[in-house]
TrEMBL record:
InterPro entries: SPOR-like_dom, SPOR-like_sf
Swiss-Prot/TrEMBL GO biological process terms: cell division
Name listed for the protein in its UniProt record: Cell division protein
Record keywords, A-Z: Cell cycle, Cell division
Regions of compositional bias (Basic and acidic residues) in chain numbering: 131-151, 165-237
Organism (species): Acinetobacter amyesii
Comp. bias (Polar residues): 34-48
Domain SPOR: 241-318
Region (Disordered): 34-58, 112-237
Domain of life, source organism: Bacteria
GO molecular function, one term: peptidoglycan binding
Length: 325
């Protein structure tokens, strides 16, 4: 019976060691998964930051980053809780093993004491056999309960991992949809910009063509005006040189119309035919016309010698009327 108890105690210790090793391995796998997920999250954030350098970050991208950060903290909290539960289960397992070892030692001591009292090492009382069966049954029930608890924790952990994976997949799908939407928005904005630039270029070209046409028209008008002015000057010079000239005696150059009328009245009172012609410097008062220069010069001398007129600065000119210029 002593060997059987030792064998049962070894089985309990072995089972507890196996459970402890399984928990440690599962905890390491979870830590490794969290570490491998952390670079992925960092990569997602870096991708989000890269997109932000190309254009200003939108509110949706900031919200997505905040959600991803909350999911990362939730996963870390879940892993911490699982590690705490594993530590708690390990402590419970160690306590159960210690209690089992203590009870086995107590029962072994009681059995030895009973054997010493009966002075028999071959026969075991029926009540002790019954107690051993109850103990084995209790240990089996404790082991089954611990296994069920471990399975429950494993199922909960798998459910958490599945939820985290689903959230990650959903976040990735949303990120891709937002990226596609942003790309479409940029493409639309680029197309609008190109259309606006093209329209502005066409308007600028039309304005330039209009300006050139106006400049050409102005240059043509200016050329025509200069040609007309030149032709008129040529005509006037030709009239002066070769036209029908009239010899006149210019007696004065009045500053205004009143002075010109006064001088003309004095001349007309003496019987002279008077002609007034406006110039840029004043109003020219002339007597004539005469049939030739000699007749005009004779008239000039007569006017200069008339003291009542007091016009001693008269001179002869060859004059062309305005209607013949």
């Amino acid at each position: 019976m002593n060997n059987k108890q030792r064998w049962m105690g070894g089985v309990v210790l072995l089972g507890g060691g196996v459970l402890l090793a399984a928990l440690l391995l599962k905890g390491k796998e979870e830590i490794h998964q969290n570490q491998s997920q952390t670079p992925e999250m960092a990569q997602v954030e870096q991708q989000g930051q890269g997109a932000g350098k190309m254009s200003s970050l939108t509110v949706d991208v900031e919200t997505e980053k905040r959600l991803l950060e909350e999911q990362r903290r939730t996963r870390e909290k879940s892993v911490a809780e699982q590690e705490a539960r594993a530590a708690e289960f390990l402590a419970m397992q160690q306590q159960a093993e210690a209690d089992a070892a203590r009870k086995a030692a107590e029962e072994y001591a009681a059995l030895n004491a009973h054997r010493s009292a009966q002075q028999s090492s071959d026969n075991i009382p029926p009540e002790l056999v019954e107690d051993e069966k109850a103990k084995q049954k209790r240990l089996a029930e404790d082991k089954l309960a611990a296994q069920k608890k471990l399975e429950t924790q494993s199922a909960q952990q798998k459910a958490d991992q599945a939820r985290i994976a689903a959230d990650k997949q959903k976040a990735e799908a949303k990120r891709k949809a937002d990226a596609q939407k942003e790309a479409e928005r940029k493409a639309h904005a680029e197309a609008e910009k190109k259309a606006a630039d093209k329209k502005a270029a066409e308007a600028k070209q039309q304005a330039e063509e209009k300006r050139k046409a106006e400049e050409k028209h102005k240059a043509e008008e200016k050329r025509k005006a200069e040609a007309k002015k030149k032709a008129e000057a040529e005509k006037a010079r030709d009239l002066l040189e070769n036209g029908d000239k009239q010899w006149m005696v210019q007696v004065a150059l009045a500053a205004n119309e009143a002075n010109a009328d006064a001088v003309a009245a004095k001349l007309r009172a003496k019987g002279y035919k008077v002609t007034k012609s406006p110039t840029s410097k004043g109003i020219r008062i002339m007597v004539g016309p005469s049939k030739d220069r000699d007749a005009a010069d004779a008239t000039r001398k007569k006017i200069n010698s008339d003291a009542s007129l007091n016009m001693k600065s008269a001179w002869v000119i060859d004059w062309v009327p305005l209607d013949k210029r």
